[in-house]
Design a protein that fits this description.
Distance between the termini: 55 Å
Number of strands: 10
CATH topology of the largest domain: 2-enoyl-CoA Hydratase, Chain A, domain 1
Structural class: alpha/beta
Radius of gyration: 18 Å
Number of helices: 11
CATH superfamily of the largest domain: 2-enoyl-CoA Hydratase, Chain A, domain 1
Helix content: 40-55%
Oligomer: single chain
Length: 244
């Protein structure tokens, strides 16, 4: 690794009004996740104030969104994953995103594998480049996932398709990912950020309180039976109305 690569920040954060853009910035290592990156993600998402309503999460370059945990740190015995207890409850858990109650859009610019796939899954919405690919390498390296992959992925694409991805360690292409419902839609690589920014600005036009409450309600109801979800919506609607 070059000295200049070592000096580069692991995250780049920019702002466009109520929209923030968080970019994983380790292109020389396919934007793999290090302990420093976990810490930076947690600090970044915790630091967003009420004025940030939507965040776009992406990676530097067109090669990779995120290739998962940094294998060099893992091999060296470094505890890469975050140690905070933000693994419970609906919505963006893990990766520090539980500290942010706005909307997170994943702009998947390249390969999203293992922990990178989990990172994408923890976003509320996923838009992918046509060059993106998705896969799970946990079985190949002999570890079980710890960031909700075994729950979130079957919910999105079905149990049998999730088992195909997870137990074979095969990559799927962007067209398959869209057809299976893993991503909302595909765009050409050069149009990815414009598409993500356009969607983020449309979301950010709304009042922060309704965005937070509605996003939370959808996540909560996703894990409930139909009957319980109806009751929960009625309860939430009444409580939200009384609060205004």
């Amino acid at each position: 690794m070059s000295e200049s690569a070592q000096e580069e920040p692991v995250l780049i954060v920019t702002r466009d009004g109520p929209v923030a853009i968080v970019t994983l910035n380790r292109p020389h290592a396919m934007n793999s996740l290090t302990r420093a990156m976990f810490q930076a993600l947690e600090q970044t998402f915790a630091g967003f104030g009420e004025d940030v309503r939507a965040v776009i999460l992406t990676g530097t370059g067109e090669r990779a969104f995120c290739a998962g945990l940094d294998m060099k740190e893992l091999a060296a015995g470094v505890a890469v994953e975050d140690s905070g207890d933000d693994s419970k409850g609906p919505g963006h858990t893990r990766f520090g995103m539980a500290n942010f109650d706005g909307v997170v859009i994943g702009a998947i610019n390249g390969v999203a594998v293992a922990g990178g796939l989990e990172l994408a899954l923890c976003c509320d919405i996923r838009i992918a480049s046509t060059t993106a690919r998705f896969g799970d390498a946990h079985a190949r390296v002999g570890i079980l996932p710890g960031a909700l992959l075994s729950s979130l992925l079957p919910h999105l694409i079905g149990v049998a398709r999730a088992k195909e991805m997870c137990l074979s360690s095969r990559l799927i292409d962007s067209v398959t990912a869209e057809r299976w419902g893993l991503v909302n839609r595909l765009v050409e690589p050069g149009e990815l950020m414009d598409a993500a920014k356009s969607l983020a600005q449309d979301i950010a036009k709304h009042d922060r309180k309704i965005l937070t409450a509605y996003n939370k309600l959808i996540d909560e109801n996703f894990g409930m039976t139909y009957a319980d979800a109806i009751d929960n919506e009625f309860r939430a609607s009444r409580e939200f109305g009384h609060g205004h």
